[in-house]
Amino acid sequence: MHETGKGERAVPYALGIDVGGTKILAGVIDLDNRQVVSTAKKKTRVGSGPDDLVQRIADVGREAITQTHAIKKVPVEAAGIGIAGQVDRDRGLLIRGPNLGADVTDLPLAKRVGDLLGLKVRVANDVEVATIGEHRFGAGRGHDDFVCIFIGTGIGGGIVQGGRVRRGASDSAGEIGHAVVSYDGRLCGCGGRGHLEAYAARSAITKVLVEELKRGRESSLRAALPNPLPEGAEGTLIRSQMIAQAVLDGDPLAVEAVTDGARYLAAGMTAIINFYNPPRIVLGGGLVDAVELYFKVAARRAQEESLVVTRGKLKIVRAKLGDNAGIIGAALLTAQG
Predict the structure, then answer these.
(1) What is the CATH number of the domain that holds 56?
(2) Cross-strand partners of 29
(3) ∠ CA 63-56-337 to the nearest 5 degrees?
(4) pLDDT tens digit string along 162-208?
(5) Which DSSP string do the residues of 263-328 spell out, in sequence order?
(6) Cα distance between residue 225 and residue 210, in whole Å
(7) Which terminal residue of the chain has fewer beta carbons within 10 Å of its beta carbon, N or C?
(8) Element (H, E) at 208
(9) How confident is the model at residue 215 (pLDDT cuts 50, 70, 90)?
(10) Is 164 helix (H, G, I), strand (E, B) or coil?
């Protein structure tokens, strides 16, 4: 058995599954050596329904285990799932997942995936598990008090206090993506208006880009998109790497959209800095990994706009584990009571 933290123990090899609005990534993690033994990936297929979601999660987990057994014969006895949405950890339920489809509610995810894989499964929010991964093995290692913010299809946060993730009264602490930055503003995927996620997430920036292209704005991105541009898929047409390349090419529309999104993220971060006064903020997710401009603008503006006293000891850094933060943190769930 392996010691993973204060009073926690786990088998050396565990399956971690990270379920986001774009993809499902699974990996078998060697928790003794902090190594990812194997990974597998599938598209999430948002809106396809709970049965399809459960099956795809199980399929990608099984594929990762099969790949591991081809490399080395080791037992994988438990699994953790980090999923985009509100979760009841104790009952293993996905209560609500607006970025996964409107009908994915009160889903007994731990039991259903566990039955398919023949494993004990624990479930938590995707950003919570990414925060756990960064705390143990990434940019938060050696730091027992910090805030994580991950930007992808949506935006989520995690709070580490005294070396442990702060879960809140109803397991929902850290939902920075649903902080209001523009009262009665853009419609968010959760049904609310003016939320940070609707302005600064990758899907929000993509929607702006597509809408501007439809209005006739010129951009190098146009050549990579279908013609005519389809309706109803604006948030999924442009990936982070496409945005990154357009920014590197100096595309005015891409630079404008990324800068505006980063400024909104900075507004949300400023509220955290002034209210919570953290010593460290870790920014991660596909958009942060891919687009240097996004990180630089958000970090600089947050430092500039926050109070002098609250930013005095603050460091804003990038996450270190990339896509693996979620699967490592999910695997670490198997150690927790």
Answers:
(1) 3.30.420.40
(2) 14, 36
(3) 80
(4) 999 998 888 788 999 999 999 999 999 888 999 999 999 999 999 99
(5) HHHHHHHHHHHHHH--SEEEEESHHHHH-HHHHHHHHHHHHHHS-HHHHTT-EEEE-SSTTHHHHH
(6) 9
(7) C
(8) helix 202-214
(9) very high
(10) strand
One domain, residues 216 and 259:
yes
Res 306: pLDDT: 97
Q: How far is residue 19's CA from residue 100's CA, in Å, rounded to a whole number?
A: 9
Task: Please state, in angstroms and rounded to a whole number, the distance separating the CA atoms of residues 122 and 119.
Answer: 10
Q: What range defines the domain where residue 153 resides?
A: 140-318
Spatial separation of the C-alpha atoms in residues 288 and 283, rounded to whole Å: 7
Q: Are residues 172 and 251 in the same domain?
A: yes
N residues, the chain: 337
For residue 233, give the amino acid letter.
A
Q: Reduced to 3 states, what is the DSSP secondary structure of residue 79? A: strand
Q: How far apart are CA 270 and CA 263, in angstroms?
A: 10
**Torsion sign (Cα): 190, 192, 197, 198:** positive
pLDDT score, position 329: 95
The pLDDT value recorded for residue 102 is: 64
